[in-house]
Task: inverse folding
């Protein structure tokens, strides 16, 4: 879980079995990196945040715009930048998190395709420069206690929807085994429309990733399976496994 709640949270690291973990002053893991494969995505739920790839032609991914709200260990931004060759924007309120990511998590230096914005996500996404520009929006905003999403109102999700291009998708990390999940699902469905929302089953740790589309798509199963095979072959993400635990939300 990544944090966008405090500009002064303590940032610390731990390592175990070749994996480096980011913490915000607690035992909660805010992100991770395989030291020998720093641009791969290690955590299962973070891999699932890439499910938007199922809905766009693979040959059109490079050059699209990915935005991550809550930098965490930077796994999504690094993967989109290095592996997918996208233009990337990360919004993080705590400058120390950005510094640690660059020093210890192999976050590349900023350039014409990579920008880290130190700002409050709720305010930053209202900036007109971002409206209608984002193809893949990753929302993973938890505080150091991971009690629930920091930003979770209908107004916030409406602002997120306005960021997206016509083909754009938002993926959100939620806790699927807590009372807040149904509330979050209801709010997202109200803003995007229930026919635009897809959901994974919870991971073993309880993380549930929701996907919401700017323009609803309901591809046939065969089309999703074909796309999943391409995703696995090109980017080594477990996309065929996704389809066993990923489905459209019922209207």
Result:
């Amino acid at each position: 879980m990544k944090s966008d709640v405090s500009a002064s949270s303590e940032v610390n690291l731990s390592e175990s079995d070749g994996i480096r973990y980011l913490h915000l002053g607690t035992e909660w893991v805010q992100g991770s990196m395989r030291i020998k494969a720093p641009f791969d995505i290690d955590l299962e739920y973070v891999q699932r945040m890439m499910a938007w790839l199922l809905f766009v032609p693979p040959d059109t991914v490079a050059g699209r715009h990915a935005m991550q709200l809550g930098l965490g260990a930077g796994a999504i931004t690094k993967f989109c930048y290095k592996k997918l060759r996208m233009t990337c924007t990360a919004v993080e309120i705590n400058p120390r998190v950005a510094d640690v990511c660059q020093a210890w998590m192999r976050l590349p230096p900023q350039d014409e395709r990579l920008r880290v914005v130190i700002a409050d996500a709720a305010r930053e996404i209202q900036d007109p420069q971002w409206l209608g520009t984002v193809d893949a929006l990753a929302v993973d905003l938890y505080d150091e206690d991971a009690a629930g999403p920091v930003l979770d109102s209908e107004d916030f999700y409406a602002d997120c929807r306005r960021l997206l291009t016509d083909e754009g998708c938002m993926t959100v990390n939620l806790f699927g085994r807590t009372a807040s999940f149904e509330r979050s699902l209801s709010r997202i469905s109200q803003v995007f429309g229930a026919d635009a929302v897809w959901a994974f089953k919870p991971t073993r740790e309880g993380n549930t990733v929701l996907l919401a589309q700017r323009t609803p798509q309901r591809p046939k199963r065969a089309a999703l399976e074909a796309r999943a095979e391409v995703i696995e072959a090109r980017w080594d993400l477990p996309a065929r496994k996704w389809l066993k635990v990923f489905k459209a939300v019922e209207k």
Notes: The chain has eight helices and eleven strands. The chain has a mean pLDDT of 92. Helices lie at 44-48, 75-82, 95-104, 121-124, 154-163, 179-192, 221-235, 239-242. The domain at 12-248 is CATH 3.40.50.150 (Rossmann fold).
